[in-house]
Amino acid sequence: MSLKVAYQGERGAFSEAAVRKILGEASQPVPYRSFEEMFESAASGETDCLLAPIENSLAGSVLKNYDLLERHELTIVGETYLRIAHSLIAPRGVKIADVRRVYSHPVALAQCERFLRANPRMEVAQAYDTAGSVKMVVQEGRSDEAAIAGRSAAEVYGADVLAEGIEDHAQNYTRFLLISDPSRIPPVHETASASNGKKTTIIFRVANKPGALFRSLAVFALRDIDLSKIESRPIEGRPWEYSFYLDLIGDVADSRIRKALAHLEELAESLRILGCYERAQSIHLS
Fold first, then answer.
1. Is 200 a catalytic residue?
2. With bands split at pLDDT 50, 70 and 90, how would you rate the model's confidence at 193?
């Protein structure tokens, strides 16, 4: 039986391609309209796991998914990077000179700001998904509307590609996290280089006083542990106080990592390990 994997979006979305990349063609991607619904499906057992975009090399972090990670008792079991190449897509027969409104997900629009600034006649309109935007403009069939999405969405919905490679920079990648209930961890298909090793993601809180965050991060610096990402999110009901998400390079089974986390636990108000997983293959810049 194929693995049911929740993702946000419609058929033809980048997230669907990422599911295939990390779990193989035998997986069964299941689309959901929102990130909340996607997380709920994996938490309830409706799907086996989910694949969530967590950060983009141009637009930055997908903050909503950090909040949902904290809210659910799920664990990160893998990661993958996907090259994001955007196209301007419209119903068949539409000419680029006639386009007056462009739909897409806010993150995709942020990744194509230079193209949109260069075409000021095109009004920008936000939508819940890239591929869903293509589906919508094809269904509407207007001659003055288009969408920004991956080329595969044009193939899925029978649309024309008016312009390709419209993202701000060719080095446009999205990092996705594979997340599941700890009791049903799926096998990761994507081959990870043996030299990549493990990555561990944690969330912690510290007292709101001078030097607290510095001392917390020092537990890793003192042990030469590489930190690859840090993100802060506001704590609900505690204005101007924050939770900190941290990606560190290493395995929780390693004594250095164990000691650093034990040291951090002494300093922090709370500490939770969100996952320890194989690092994705390195991105080769060209």
1. no
2. very low
If pLDDT is split at 50, 70 and 90, which confidence band does 187 have? Answer: confident
Our answer to whether residue 220 is catalytic in this structure is no
Asked whether residue 79 falls in the same domain as residue 91, the answer is: no
Same domain, 143 and 100: yes
CATH number at residue 109: 3.40.190.10
Task: Give the span between the Cα atoms of 213 and 49, in whole angstroms.
Answer: 33
Catalytic site residue from 35, 176, 204, 220: 176
Taking only the tens place, the pLDDT of each residue in 21-65 is: 999 988 999 999 999 999 999 999 999 999 999 999 988 999 999
Residues 42, 5, 22: CA angle, nearest 5 degrees: 125
* 207-219 pLDDT per residue, tens: 999 999 999 999 9
Range of the domain at 160: 87-164
Q: Across-strand partners of 121? A: none
Catalytic residue among 75, 174, 200, 201: 174
With beta carbons less than 8 A apart as the criterion, state whether 229 and 279 touch: no
pLDDT tens-digit map of 244-273: 999 999 999 999 999 999 999 999 999 999
